[in-house]
Amino acid sequence: MIGTFELKEYHTKEHTLLALWPVVRLEDGTAVLIESLWDKSKRRDEATIKAYTGKRVAVTGMLHGEPPGAIANISEPCVSPVKSLDLLGE
After folding, report:
1. How confident is the model at residue 13 (pLDDT cuts 50, 70, 90)?
2. At residue 22, what are phi and psi to the nearest 5 degrees?
3. Mean pLDDT across the stretch 15-33?
4. Per-position DSSP letters for 16-66, written without gaps between them
5. Residue 28 — left, alpha, or beta (φ > 0 → left; ψ -120 to 50 → alpha)?
6. Of 46, 32, 47, whose CA–CA distance to 82 is shortest?
7. Strand pairing partners for 86?
8. What's the rounded Cα separation, in Å, for the pair 69 and 34?
9. Alpha helix segments (H runs only) across the chain
């Protein structure tokens, strides 16, 4: 899928910050998680986040309706595992 790399805030029911997590923002406004936020080891490193934020990217991998790996889940699409994450137009 192709979209803009962003960081998105995810909050608990009590409105405390749960995670600031990489997503691909599609043209229609949909945010798609890049890997499950339940697996912190799969979060992109800070150098990648800094280099990619605000830029168009192509993400290839398995698309899920929600992140795998937790009973209490976020109803948001997720690509996991990610096979590739590439900058476009560079």
Report:
1. confident
2. -65, 135
3. 95
4. -EEEEEEEEE-TTS-EEEES-TT-GGGSPPHHHHHHHTTSEEEEEEEEESS
5. alpha
6. 32
7. 58
8. 14
9. 46-52
Residue 72 CA to residue 35 CA, distance in Å, equals: 16
Tell me the backbone φ, ψ of residue 86, rounded to 5 degrees: -125, 140
Tokens 């991998």 found at? 61
Tokens representing 14 are 């009590």
Structure tokens at 81: 């595992």
Tokens 């990648």 belong to which residue? Answer: 48
Which of 9, 78, 75 is CA-nearest to residue 39? 78
Q: Which two tokens stand for residue 70?
A: 């937790």
Residues 6+ away with beta carbon under 8 Å from 17 = 9, 10, 11
pLDDT in tens, 25-78: 999 999 999 998 888 899 999 999 999 999 999 999 999 887 776 555 577 899
Both structure tokens of 19: 């995670």
